[in-house]
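**Entry details**
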Amino acid sequence: MTERRTVSSVTFAEAFVLDGADGVQPPGTYLIETVEEPLDSVSFLGFRRISTTITLPAVGTATLSRQVVAISPQELQTGSLNDDALANE
């Protein structure tokens, strides 16, 4: 079995700061991608998270560049991105 990818989005109502990214990120909807690999088990099917990333716009550049930054799933779940109105879509 190969790795499993899950894509979702999260909407921030206010600007937020993210570890691993420069500056303040503007409010908006962001793409979240999680990659998991299957566990080696004969009795049940399970997966282990390999990575979670968020796609950010390139703020302050004239090109249509984007940056992909590794993010902690706990950071998203606890709302520690300095946004009180975290809403998963």
About this structure: Residues 1 and 18 are 33 Å apart (CA to CA). Confidence is low (pLDDT under 50) at residues 82-89.
